[in-house]
Amino acid sequence: MFDTVKLNTDQTIFQKLQNMGWGLIILICVLACIGFTALYSAAQGNFDPWASKQIVRFLVGLVGLFIIALVDIKIWYRLTYPIFIVGFISLIIVEIMGHTGMGAQRWINLGFIQLQPSEFMKIAVVMSLARYFHAAGQDDMKSFKFLIPSLVFILLPVGLVLLQPDLGTSLMIVMAGITMIFLAGAPIWIFLVGAAASAASLPVAWYFMHSYQKQRVMTFLNPESDPLGAGYHITQSKIALGSGGIEGKGFLEGSQSRLNFLPEKQTDFIFTLWAEEWGLMGGIFLLVIIALILLYGIIISMNCRHAFGRLLAMGLVVNFSLYVFINIAMVMGLIPVVGAPLPLVSYGGTSMLAALVGFGLILSCNIHRDSKLPRMQ
Amino acid sequence: MNNQDERSKSFSRRTFVVGACQGLALAVLGGRLAWLQLAEGGRYKTLSDKNRINIKMVAPSRGEIVDRFGVPLAINNQNFRILMVPEQVDDVDKSLGKLARFIDLDDRKIQKVIKASKKSASFIPLEVTDNLNWSEVAKVEVNLADLPGVSIDEGEIRNYPFGYPTGHLVGYVRSVSQNDLDGDPLLTLPGFKIGKTGIEKSYDKKLRGEAGNKQMEVNVRGREVRELENNSSLNGQRLSLSIDAELQVYCQQILAQHKSASAVVMDAYTGAVYALVSHPSFDPNIFTKSISAEQWEELVSNPAFPLNNKAVGGQYPPGSTFKMITALAALEGGYATPNTTVRCKGRYEFGKDKYHCWKLSGHGTMSVVSALMRSCDTYFYELATEIGIDNISAMARKFGLGQKYGFDLPEERAGLLPTKKWKEERVGQVWRPGDTIISSIGQGYILSTPLQLAVMMSRLINGGIAVDPWLVGYMDDKKVYPDKWPKMDVSQKNLDLVKVGMDRVVNAKDGTAYDSRIEEEGFEFGGKTGTAQVKKINRAERARGIMNEDLSWKYRHHALFVGYAPLNNPRYVVSVVVEHGGGGSAVAAPLAKEILLETQKRNPALSDIKLTNVIEKPENNV
Fold this sequence. Notes:
heterodimer; A: 15 helices; B: seven-stranded mixed β-sheet; five-stranded antiparallel β-sheet; 36% helix; elongated
């Protein structure tokens, strides 16, 4: 099966840049600019402490994005499993000696930057699944045995992330993984059985949940029951959003956010701040940008001539969209508060870098859509 | 290759499904956003405003009270207070302990604040102490950083520059009690004070003004970020009284010769009250600060009741000052003519009962003028049974007795004018002719206040104009006093006759107040003495030779005098009541003389109420 196809390395750097997918880059920049504006406002009209750092991170991340995009997809293909292993080891390191932040061990301090390996692990899982399914034939997908290793790719990191404990990220990895298995062509009945099984296991999961996680779920179900306690976040966020109206309160006029009624306004609740100040119009604008990004990603995925690229690009698009949906649904009170940032908008180094790395890989898929990749195990 | 195509198609189908899910999710998010911001936007907007806006009430300045010359009787002084918001204080006890290091805070005050902090909502600021001086303010100010939840508030404190002599008249303000709450949000302000007596009480709502409010944007900790709106308060109205403060002070000094007395000086034509004095009085300033238990005890245990305004609230039998009414009732009713005479033998017998004239040896033949001049009781006894009590009371009512005028002081009382029906209903007994007989000389059931006696005197000498007394002339620059009075249905001829009698009381050699006459030309006055019996000396006591002077203070007669001046062109009227002072001619008339002389010299009627602010007190000259 080892048939070394002539590698498509004849693209010059300029051709690569031409094929980059600039539309996507522009959309990413627009989204990041929304973030800068919101962070500037969150600091009462100051670049410090958030907006300035965020801009620097974005610019650094953008350079990384270009590098990742320009690197040949074959190299990423080869590096997939090593990356998975490195990510997995860093998760273990976090578990053993990780820095404790916000009551959960999620950070690893590399001296110059505090990294959240779980963010990168998500990408590694997507990559690994893409690679694993790249080699799969139509019959393989029908065999349950063939699917088992892919579940291992998902469940190993999920287990570690759950230990941290970070329910939100675990669920996101699981959902992204399942979506990839679905995209790879696994039979539908597997998903039906899986859905039934997980529904049955909900009570068990409840039993193993941390008390704060249980409380978040309870609060979500009835936020008004505890308006000054755990329901405070959701209630205040809804007040901020609702009071924004159609046109919003205006730039730097978001009283809820500026006056600290809104918790975590620079991170998880950045969308609230944005929609409070810019209203429904601003909120819809942001959603349209995201929709365009998703659409762009999907088109890239569809245009890819190799399964690895298709699955990788689509997996990363799904990953990105999960972040967006969970974050925005959370601040609007549609789902419990799980602590997920809005990628590219929320303040935070890891999520910014992870998002840009993800888009770099998508762009790499775009540039190298016609590459021939080996079909090997 | 076929296989690859098949996979590619499957992938495209499934990608489409995933993409559709994402589109659907985005649509749900957009819909949710629109729902929150459009459909529920209004509700959340209100919640958001509640979140951030802290409405602070701004207290208005209480209206000043000034006399007719603009001399201040009640003003506002700067007052520094210390407020504490229990919510922002970790430990109320500890914070108070800290405060006590900088300012004088006794245990009583500390306990009071601790008690209050447990009762009221924790975000309501409590007044810890007030009346701080500059050095105390400075000390606390410097240490404010160490005292979270504590703030210095610059407010106002009521001050009464005249103090004692205006205690009853102006009244005082005190903290709001539970019963005072009338829905005005101002009353809930910490340390807010309202009028409790006097003008301060009756005009409280006008003096109070209207609360303004300041809308402050606050952050989640309640700290003020910026001011959003400032609706300034509407200050209370300034009241310009008819009072002449200097005359008021003078009268107070005159009355101070006696244990308990009251006097009213008013204008016979306009009803303006120039002085209204009740002795003993009190310094209203002690109430605006915190009054000590000893001070309070002293005020309430004093047998002369310094807290009572006797000028409007003291009800006394008018005694012989009532005789003008009986005379007019007789003359107007045709029961007597100017020439009707009665022979006084010192007593009057009706059936089996004997009624004594004050002069036991008798006055001889009396006409209405001489009976007034010498205050012969027998003359009036004789006429009384014919006139009947209902006619006498009706005449008295015409002249302002037995009623409230809606006067500017809440302590005003109505006195009492008995009628047959009244006695049957209220006492449950039939009215007897004897009741009429003693009523004719202002004894028995009749009760009147010094204010009413002054009104009676006014109506007697102003040509029968039914003036009512008033104190408040202007609220800010709006005239509020009445200047049209109804004419009474009393013949001028009879009024003149009574006036001759009153002239002679003072200025004829046989008059009961001749000793108190004013000899200075142009300042002469007329009037009528009265001695009101408090306790009847019974036959046994009279047999033992017990005189009224021998009785203990509270059983002695009240001494009364009602007077007017100048004699020929009357303007000023005075009524004086000395409680348990003895005889009207010996005790009350001399006081009335001094007051009328001073009043005429000051001549307050010459000038209208001034509306400009006069800081300097006017010179005491004519």
